[in-house]
Design goal:
Elements: E1 8-15, H1 26-29, E2 30-39, H2 40-58, H3 71-75, H4 87-103, E3 107-114, H5 115-121, H6 128-141
Antiparallel strand pairs: 1-2, 2-3
Helix pairs in contact: 2-4
Length: 142
């Protein structure tokens, strides 16, 4: 019997933006692209565990979309994260989430670009997002 090839699932998120505006401020100067990839089977197990964890700690979402983990909302106890106003629930959430992430089997890469340096280094610089994405995919595929 022939072995099935391994399959992976890549998730990408960014911090910052792709423009060359506001380069004088730290919040406008950098773009970071984070890639996290799982083997398909490992991702399915992680996703099940994460959904069970969110349901257990944040409560039922009957008839509503699942909770999306957004740092700003969680830190500020907004929306479905209102339950985290209770310090005991917040501790349970933080410890449980860190435990899930620590136990998961995944690989991660971060590409960070200093857009100010990039803009002045090249006569015709690439779009920073495209540049960072290509660098990430080169490493992911290689």
């Amino acid at each position: 019997m022939e072995a099935r090839p391994l399959r992976y699932r890549l998730f990408i998120d960014e911090s910052g933006d792709h423009t060359y505006t506001n380069l004088g401020r730290a919040s406008g100067r950098y773009l970071a692209l984070l890639g996290v990839w799982f083997r398909t089977e490992d991702h399915a197990a992680f996703e099940r565990g994460l959904e069970e964890f969110k349901h257990r700690v944040l409560g039922s979402r009957d008839g509503k979309p699942p909770v999306v983990l957004h740092r700003h909302e969680a830190v500020n106890h907004m929306g479905p994260f209102g339950a985290l106003r209770d310090p005991a629930v917040e501790r349970t959430f933080n410890d449980g989430l860190l435990g899930l992430i620590s136990a998961a089997d995944y690989r991660m890469i971060l590409v960070n670009i200093d857009k100010l340096q990039h803009h002045f280094k090249y006569a015709e610089p690439w779009n920073p997002y495209s540049y960072a994405l290509q660098a990430m995919l080169d490493r992911y595929c290689g």
